[in-house]
Inverse folding.
């Protein structure tokens, strides 16, 4: 049975979990029920907080296949527990379905729709079967259903057509559509196609919030105080708790409503689907299942699912997923049996074939069809399995953020509970020895717990965060997760999206540099001139693009758009009627505007016949080979109207274009000119052209391969584009670097642009080396490998043959560490390489995270994986982005800040009203200030607890206590006023290199708290025992002021219970302890109110200064000049004048010692600690720091130029690799 119990679901994935089976046990339920009654419901609360205990207390262990309840535990560092109830899905066989296929599914033999299942269903479809019902066991966790699978003897989630289905079978077995019976059956399994975000009712949220352990403790304290007739402070705590709960409920519900509105856009629309008999049926989008053939309407739609296009073309706005608002052209999936020979059984994958996949939530703007065909797409994923569904799940169920402060806070509370336990036992023993009543003993002993663990602690801790939130709001930063503000104070690495975050949204044309007679001409600013209008260079700019007209407006890639606008030409597309006549040919025509054309049009081409001379100059685009990031180029075949021969035009990365041109047409100084531009941060694109042979006809061109066109070209020159940085970007990044905060670029844009922008904005300094990691997955029996390319210039990274090895420092590892530190290097890679490295080179991931600066072509989930990889080496990661493609990363990062108020703001803890990265330093400064405030408040509240605990313990020893109004004065007038004003210090104006400590359990903080505890206990004890000595000389029950006589003076009154209670409080020991402790609260508040370098000095916090001065003056006044009415309310006695002076000396000495010790800890504590650590040679706690030390002495790191790192195929250990040099 052990093997049964140790099962894992989602193996190897991010949400991998162990699964254990349990069955409900009646006798355990009876025992738990009795326990709940005996503990007054407290056991029920404990089981509510701990799912693991709840299941183990009420169930017995059993095999997973027979269980009624599953207990799940994540395998990550958080080891979180979840439980889920097993449910049954009844499947009734119909005459249209075979029982065998149903049994097969119910037993779990086909958890996803492979072609075998589809084939079997089709084969068995018409057979009649006996009526029989089957049941499938399943459970739901985080919006995903897990069905029992008999084949693997485990639970597994239901997959669609996105796994294990070949491209061939997409056409052969799935393109016909589903029958109504098969559709109904799949609907039963897959459920409703919707991303359901239910907004919980206020009552549900309220119950969940109120059942927080802190609020339960507050409730216990309030009940206890009410029994003890301590109503005023109880009321104050109730009011604070209500305000806290209401504000928390408001922000949580607002988040749910925003997320619900975000996903509701495509929730229910009417769609047309094709059935097996070619009839088109209209259904609701919620009824779609994998395998349905959906008809994409002519006027576009918002996609309600993920679907693969099998006929026609769509123009799609994918900004919801990619953040780039550039329309993307999606073509139908190539049919291996028709289009491409030798493609074999290539498996379909939404990621690999994303140019043919329409993703959920994206907007289809326009469709194009040919010869009357419908534009069809096969549904591959529905509901939460879709790309948008996964995004919403990452927002709904984020991984918890581990922060040392909160872990230490719980440890600290446990220490206070232990102290309270000691006081609890002492109080009981002391009370029994003094023969007090049972009720009195219970109240006193429980009261010591509420004194030691202050119920006001959550409100006190929240105050600093609330103030920081308000200050952030003033600078245009809105926060929906206030607890993250503290974490932002620890950020030491910030990831930035590029487009719209670091740079302006588009590129600008800086100029062109043409080539004539194999020489570069001088750069030209304008291409819009009569002289160039008929040149091949302008013709290439006019035709070589992927632009299209949407509702009469030209749209497409911003780079193409800028180039086309620069020449001032006009683009005309064929109408739908014309398109339908031409089989798969898009006769798009471009022509210059009339003012650009010269008046006469002489025929330059000798071969043209006179009667063929056109009245106007037009170029038709015959065939387009779209831009490929792998090839780094695009090309078109075009023909000038009236010309017999066609032209091929090509544009792309300069070194790639140059390698495909005739060597004699490429200028000698090509590399030097290119390097000059790229070093200035320009984006450079090269153009090439050649005349095609006259034998190539219109129809032959439609079937010619790309390689046949893209060779033997004539090099025409360069286009120089400028990707303008936002004005504030370099200054902000410089501030972050000065503060020792690493910056990383993670973008969906291509590598060349990203590295260029990184250099331009100062993320990569001019002298720094860039190492390109090009990772290739295993293929044809070969293992995965990484090719390392060094790049001095931006453009040389894409082609290793173009690298001049002599210009690169081959050996970066030197004998002395000092020389090594001078050589800074950065890794750059694209999304594909990043995925391969994550999968096959696990041991290299931490090393690459240490110096990885540019991550290009990153998909949304890859951005999230990058944030997690950085967190795994102990970085505190911030993320700044502006698109929905950043949602997962914004949510996962310790501090995510969105520059958009759209989808990203739902996921992001912070949203900036101004789309500028200047919000990042502001957030970090406020985070640091809030973190330091939290430390100050925590230390103060700890001292408050210990001071009051010790005061009460001392007084309990003489059967005395603090009076109700004394407690009230301390708790309300001193503690709450001080706590809520000491948190008001604004953030320091500059970001400094020093970071605040991340946790409470650090040497300096502990020493600070312990030293203050010892000082306070020492001076309280001194006052308490000294006054007992003085009482020998005074009448202990007399009033030294002679204004009134104490009730305790006359022995005849001692039998009155009320008066006896007063005598227990009104004595010299009580008065002495009250005055000394009151001053101690104010002394430690001043000592702990730290200013520079994270907060403004406390003297600039006017509310705090005024509050402390008023309290000091008031307490000094009633101590040195007693006022009868105040004494009566506070239940203090008038002590002799001489003792008042002694009290003043004790208080002043206490203040001097406390402040001097705290200043010494601040000034010398760090030096002593660093000296102690250096003596011990302690390894750094943070993994990245330890790794940096290791890499300093690693001769094999960084990898040398033109080397390859290969994954070892023989060794099964994940991530093992070896480095081999390319010969």
């Amino acid at each position: 049975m052990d093997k049964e119990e140790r099962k894992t679901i989602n193996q190897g994935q991010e949400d991998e979990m162990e699964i254990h089976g349990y069955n409900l046990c009646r006798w355990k339920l009876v025992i738990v029920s009795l326990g709940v009654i005996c503990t007054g419901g407290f056991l029920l609360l404990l089981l509510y907080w701990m799912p693991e205990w709840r299941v183990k207390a009420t169930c017995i262990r059993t095999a997973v296949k027979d269980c009624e309840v599953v207990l799940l535990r994540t395998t990550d560092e958080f080891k979180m527990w979840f439980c889920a109830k097993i449910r049954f899905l009844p499947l009734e066989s119909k005459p249209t379905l075979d029982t065998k296929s149903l049994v097969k599914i119910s037993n779990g033999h086909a958890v996803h729709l492979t072609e075998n299942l589809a084939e079997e269903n089709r084969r068995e479809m018409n057979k009649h079967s006996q009526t029989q019902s089957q049941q499938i066991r399943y459970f739901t966790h985080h919006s995903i259903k897990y069905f029992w699978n008999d084949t693997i003897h485990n639970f597994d989630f239901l997959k669609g057509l996105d796994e294990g289905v070949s491209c061939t079978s997409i056409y052969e077995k799935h393109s016909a559509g589903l029958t109504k019976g098969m559709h109904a059956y799949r609907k039963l399994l897959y459920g409703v196609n919707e991303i359901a975000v239910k907004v919980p009712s206020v009552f549900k949220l309220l119950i969940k919030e109120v059942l927080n352990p802190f609020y339960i403790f507050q409730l216990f304290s309030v009940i206890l105080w009410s029994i003890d007739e301590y109503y005023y402070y109880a009321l104050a705590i109730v009011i604070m708790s209500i305000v806290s709960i209401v504000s928390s409920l408001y922000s949580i519900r607002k988040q749910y409503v925003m997320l619900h509105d975000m996903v509701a856009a495509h929730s229910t629309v009417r769609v047309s689907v094709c059935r097996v008999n070619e009839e088109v049926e209209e259904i609701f989008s919620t009824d779609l299942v994998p395998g349905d053939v959906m008809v994409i309407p002519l006027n576009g739609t918002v996609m309600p699912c993920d679907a693969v296009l099998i006929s026609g073309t769509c123009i799609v706005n994918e900004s919801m997923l990619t953040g780039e608002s550039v329309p993307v052209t999606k073509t139908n999936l190539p049919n291996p049996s028709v289009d491409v020979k030798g493609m074999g059984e290539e498996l379909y994958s939404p990621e690999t074939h994303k140019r043919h996949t329409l993703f959920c939530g994206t907007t289809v703007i326009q469709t194009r069809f040919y010869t009357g065909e419908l534009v069809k797409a096969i549904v591959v994923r529905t509901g939460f399995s879709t790309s948008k569904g996964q995004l919403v799940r990452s927002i709904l169920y984020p991984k918890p953020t581990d922060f040392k402060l909160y872990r230490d806070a719980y440890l600290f509370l446990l220490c206070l509970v232990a102290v309270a336990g000691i006081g609890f036992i002492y109080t009981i023993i002391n009370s029994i020895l003094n023969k007090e009543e049972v009720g009195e003993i219970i109240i006193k002993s429980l009261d010591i717990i509420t004194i030691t663990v202050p119920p006001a602690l959550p409100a006190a801790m929240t105050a600093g965060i609330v103030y920081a939130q308000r200050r952030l709001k003033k600078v245009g930063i809105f926060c929906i997760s206030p607890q993250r503000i503290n974490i932002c104070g620890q950020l030491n690495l910030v990831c930035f999206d590029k487009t719209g975050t670091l740079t302006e949204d588009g590129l600008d044309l800086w100029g062109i540099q043409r080539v004539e007679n194999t020489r570069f001409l001088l750069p030209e600013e304008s291409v819009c001139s009569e002289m160039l209008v008929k040149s091949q260079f302008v013709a290439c700019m006019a035709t070589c693009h992927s632009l299209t007209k949407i509702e009469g407006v030209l749209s497409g890639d911003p780079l193409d758009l800028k180039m086309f606008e620069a020449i001032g030409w006009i683009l005309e597309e064929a109408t739908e009627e014309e398109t339908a006549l031409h089989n798969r040919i898009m006769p798009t025509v471009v022509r210059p505007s009339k003012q650009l054309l010269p008046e006469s049009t002489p025929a330059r081409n000798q071969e043209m016949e006179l009667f063929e001379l056109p009245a106007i100059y037009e170029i038709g685009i015959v065939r387009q080979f779209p831009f490929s990031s792998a090839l780094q180029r695009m090309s078109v075949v075009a023909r000038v109207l009236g010309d017999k021969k066609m032209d091929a035009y090509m544009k792309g990365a300069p070194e790639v274009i140059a390698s495909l041109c005739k060597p004699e047409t490429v200028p000698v100084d090509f590399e030097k000119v290119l390097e000059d531009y790229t070093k200035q941060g320009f984006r450079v694109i090269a153009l090439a052209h050649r005349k095609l042979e006259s034998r190539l006809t219109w129809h032959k061109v439609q079937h010619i391969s790309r390689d046949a066109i893209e060779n033997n070209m004539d090099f025409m020159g360069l286009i120089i584009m400028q990707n303008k940085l936002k004005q504030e970007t370099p200054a902000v990044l410089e501030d972050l670097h000065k503060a020792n905060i690493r910056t990383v670029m993670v973008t969906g844009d291509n590598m060349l642009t990203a590295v260029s922008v990184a250099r331009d904005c100062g993320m990569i300094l001019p002298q720094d080396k860039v190492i390109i990691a090009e990772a290739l997955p295993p293929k044809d029996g070969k293992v995965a490998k990484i090719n390392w390319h060094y790049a001095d210039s931006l453009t040389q990274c894409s082609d290793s043959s173009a690298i001049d090895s002599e210009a690169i420092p081959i050996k970066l590892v030197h004998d002395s560490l000092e020389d090594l530190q001078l050589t800074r290097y950065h890794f750059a890679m694209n999304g594909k390489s990043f995925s391969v490295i994550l999968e096959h080179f696990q041991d290299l991931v931490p090393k690459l995270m240490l110096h990885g600066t540019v991550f290009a072509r990153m998909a949304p989930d890859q951005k999230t994986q990058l944030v997690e990889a950085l967190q795994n080496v102990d970085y505190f990661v911030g993320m700044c982005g502006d698109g929905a493609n950043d949602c997962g990363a914004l949510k996962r990062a310790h501090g995510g800040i969105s520059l958009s108020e759209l989808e990203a703001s739902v996921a992001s803890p912070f949203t900036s009203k101004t789309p500028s990265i200047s919000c990042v330093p502001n957030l970090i400064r406020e985070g640091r200030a809030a973190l330091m405030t939290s430390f100050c408040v925590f230390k103060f509240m700890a001292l408050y607890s210990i001071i009051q605990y010790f005061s009460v313990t001392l007084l309990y020893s003489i059967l005395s206590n603090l009076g109700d109004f004394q407690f009230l004065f301390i708790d309300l007038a001193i503690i709450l006023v001080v706590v809520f004003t000491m948190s008001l210090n604004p953030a320091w104006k500059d970001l400094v290199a020093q970071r605040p400590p991340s946790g409470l359990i650090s040497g300096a903080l502990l020493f600070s708290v312990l030293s203050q505890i010892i000082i306070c206990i020492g001076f309280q004890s001194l006052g308490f025992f000294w006054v007992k000595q003085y009482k020998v000389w005074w009448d202990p029950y007399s009033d030294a002021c002679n204004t009134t006589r104490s009730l305790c003076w006359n022995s005849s009154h001692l039998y009155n219970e009320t008066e006896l209670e007063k005598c227990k409080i009104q004595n010299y020991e009580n008065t002495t302890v009250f005055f000394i402790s009151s001053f101690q609260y104010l002394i430690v508040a001043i000592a702990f109110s730290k200013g520079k370098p994270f907060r403004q000095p406390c003297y600039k916090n006017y509310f705090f200064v005024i509050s402390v001065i008023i309290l000091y003056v008031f307490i000094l006044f009633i101590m040195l000049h007693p006022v009868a009415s105040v004494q009566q309310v506070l239940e203090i006695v008038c002590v002799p004048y001489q003792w008042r002076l002694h009290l003043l000396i004790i208080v002043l000495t206490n203040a001097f010692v406390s402040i001097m010790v705290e200043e010494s800890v601040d000034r010398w504590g760090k030096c002593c600690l660093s000296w102690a650590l250096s003596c011990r040679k302690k390894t750094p706690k943070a993994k990245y720091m330890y790794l940096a030390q290791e890499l300093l002495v690693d001769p094999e790191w960084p990898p040398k130029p033109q080397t390859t790192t290969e994954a070892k195929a023989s060794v099964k250990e994940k991530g093992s690799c070896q480095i081999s040099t390319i010969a």
Summary: The two ends are 55 Å apart (CA to CA). The first strand starts at residue 7 and ends at 9. The chain has a mean pLDDT of 77. The chain is about 40% helix and 20% strand.
